[in-house]
UniProtKB/TrEMBL annotation:
Pfam families: GDPD. Residues 13-266 form the GP-PDE domain. This is Glycerophosphodiester phosphodiesterase. It comes from the Bacteria. GO terms for molecular function: phosphoric diester hydrolase activity. Gene3D superfamilies: Phosphatidylinositol (PI) phosphodiesterase. The lineage of its organism: Bacteria, Bacillati, Actinomycetota, Actinomycetes, Kitasatosporales. One of its GO terms (biological process) is lipid metabolic process. Transmembrane segments: none annotated.
């Protein structure tokens, strides 16, 4: 099994493989997680949503259409929303062929399958609760599953897990339910708003097109809910030039589809 031992970011800049190594393998599949591990990347990011029968699955879009063969398997069920299909139906879908024929047979993983694989690979996870407004209660269910899979013990909570969302209410809920879990808010709050976010988020994770050196410095001057400096991971950084720009700003990490490109840029400066 592939194993990600060393964190290959520089000491200063974490590298997070966005949806797994998603430029080289189909996003949010076990193959993408394994690919990241084989390349030596310990941090991966994923997106979690919920099926019609209440199972948590790893997929980015609220529809199955772009990344599976659902239109062929279930014609007539347009617009093929994740929430309108059971876990058993989704398990029949091919989530690899759209990317490359070599990945035919890859599946949409359940969160449980995904956590097992990330554990086996000794990886770390930035878990995004995607579209939480569609799935009332998903925060509690996600935390329950993480607990069942052994991901809420002290070592995991300290260094292997961040739960993030674009939805501030969702992140506030995660923080209220499990104050020990590290959280990230996806977005770029105004400087005036940042202290309010720092009450429930350890990270502000912003598009790289929206940040500046001053913004990063403002974040680092604030303290997060665990008494440490607020952090910033920035996305989606896929070129050497953008990597160097945000590294100069002093970001804590980059979320990238091309972790190998980012690693090389950080090493060569
Ligand atoms: O982790 C950052 C990034 O995943 C946010 O955007 O649309 O790729 O989920 P998206
Ligand atoms: Ca995401």
């Amino acid at each position: 099994a592939p194993t990600a031992h060393a964190d290959p970011g520089t000491d200063r800049t974490r590298i997070v493989a966005h949806r797994g190594a998603s430029a080289q393998a189909p996003e949010n599949t076990l193959a993408a997680v394994d690919r990241a591990a084989r390349l030596g990347f310990s941090w991966v990011e994923n997106d979690v949503q919920r099926t019609k029968d209440g199972k948590l699955v790893v997929i980015h879009d609220d529809s199955l259409a772009r990344t599976t063969d659902v239109e062929q398997v279930f014609p007539g069920r347009s617009p093929w929303k994740v929430k309108d299909f059971t876990a058993a139906e989704i398990a029949r879908l091919d989530a690899g062929s759209w990317f490359d024929a070599r990945y035919k047979g890859a599946r949409v993983p359940t969160l449980k399958q995904y956590m097992n694989r990330v554990s086996r690979n000794h990886q770390k996870l930035v878990l995004e609760i995607k579209n939480p407004a569609l799935y009332p209660g998903i925060e509690r269910e996600t935390l329950k599953l993480l607990g069942n899979e052994g991901w809420l013990g002290p070592a995991h909570v300290r260094g292997r897990l961040v739960v993030q969302s674009f939805d501030a209410n969702s992140i506030r809920t995660v923080h209220r339910l499990r104050p020990d879990v590290k959280t990230g808010f996806l977005g770029t709050p105004s400087v005036a708003q940042l202290p309010a976010y720092a009450r429930f988020a350890d990270q502000i994770n912003s598009s790289h097109t929206t940040i500046s050196r001053g913004y990063v410095a403002t974040i680092h001057a604030l303290e997060g809910p665990h008494g440490k400096p607020l952090e910033i991971l920035t996305w989606t950084v896929d070129t050497a030039a953008d990597t160097r720009r945000v590294a100069r700003f002093g970001v804590d990490g980059v979320i990238t589809n091309k972790p190998d490109v980012v690693r090389k840029a950080l090493r060569t400066g």
